[in-house]
Amino acid sequence: MSTYYQIFGGKVNVVSADPSNPIEGQIWYNTTTELLKYRVGLIPAAWATGGNLATAKRYTAGCGTQTAGLNFSGFTTTFTGATEEYDGSTWSGGGNMTNARYGLAGAGTQTAGLGFGGYVTGDTASTKTEEYDGTSWTAGGALGTGRRFLSGAGTQTVAAAFGGQTGSLSAATEEYNGTAWTGGGNLGTARDFLAGAGTQTVALAFGGGTTVPVTNTEEYDGTSWTAGGSLNTARTRLAGAGTQTAGLGFGGDNPPVANTEEYNGTSWTNGGNLNIARWELGGAGSQTAGLGFGGYSTATTNATEEYTGDIAASTKTVTGA
Fold it and tell me: Start-end ranges of CATH 2.120.10.80 in the chain?
């Protein structure tokens, strides 16, 4: 039988205590614990293919997590109210929105979702809000300012809506209490096609367009917006996920990009690229477990991708078969 040395050209170190600063690929046997261990290096952040949406769509909205995601409404070749639920592997049909629309925003969870604004048939800047209970949608309180291509953050009962178009660019922010919307502090930069993340009182708005794609990031404290660190890549029609101090921005149009960026509360750094460069997509999840779906690449797509953030270097123990 060949020895480890004969196969790999090196020896397993025998030690009485684990090394304090092991390096990637290092292997040792700890005589005190009687365990064989090895060091695994950093695994970089990356997107992996997930289960396809049943309906290819763009200008769509979403909320929830990577393993309990919700996608609703959007544009196929026309307005759609189709809702789908994700379990981490596959999408299944949910109850359709009462008002088919696209260019809307979303917040909440798979079983307590919120959809608001957008294009609704006969109404190019809608005030309509709907609430999802895991089965069906019901009407919620109307936005004070009807708009499309806006963004949002928060939960079904404590949400924020910001930016978008009313016919002109909007800086308006509104806050939802589960029944009604009331005015909040305006964005510093009026824009549409922006992305959002976080909660009503700790929100993040980034990217979007004025007359050109922008890198602007703003942070909301429940009263007012202040400038944050700029995106590295200016873009519109992007998706967002995460929180104000652990945000995720991906995709967009400047031209169509696959680039992903991660926010730490101060600055953005590049993460792993989407496998399919696209814009007008939906997003959900967190910075370390993101979900992107739908959008437009060379055509409207039903593709879903799952994001895993950097996995730090770690020490593993060899176990028996």
Answer: 46-308
Burial level of 319, CB count in 10 A (0-12/13-18/19+)? Answer: exposed
> How many whole angstroms separate alpha carbon 105 and alpha carbon 196?
9
Structure tokens at 202: 């700790």
Whole-angstrom CA distances from 85 to 30, 82, 94, 125 are 47, 10, 6, 26
Distance in angstroms (rounded) separating the CA atoms of residues 265 and 150: 22
Dihedral of alpha carbons 95, 295, 178, 140, sign: negative
Q: Is-contact 249 269, C-beta < 8 A?
A: no
- Reading the block at residue 171, the tokens are 């800086």
What pLDDT digit, counting tens, does each position of 197-242 carry? 999 999 999 999 999 999 999 999 999 999 999 999 999 999 999 9
pLDDT one-digit tens code per residue, 246-289: 999 999 997 899 999 999 999 999 999 999 999 999 999 999 99
From 102, 109, 94, select the one nearest 126 (Cα to Cα): 102
Task: Name residues whose C-beta falls within 8 Å of residue 298's C-beta, 6 or more positions apart in sequence.
Answer: none
The rounded average pLDDT for each run of 10 residues, N- to C-terminus, in the chain (321 residues) is 56 92 94 95 96 98 98 97 98 98 98 97 91 98 97 98 97 98 98 98 98 98 98 98 98 93 98 98 98 97 97 91 53
Tokens representing 232?
């590295």
Residue 75: in which H helix or E strand, if any? strand 69-75
Strands (DSSP E) contained in 252-303 are: 260-263, 268-270, 282-285, 289-293
Task: Give backbone dihedrals phi and psi of 5, rounded to 5 degrees, phi first.
Answer: -60, -45
The CATH code of domain 46-308 reads 2.120.10.80
Task: Name the DSSP letter for residue 236.
Answer: B
Amino acid identity, residue 59? Answer: Y
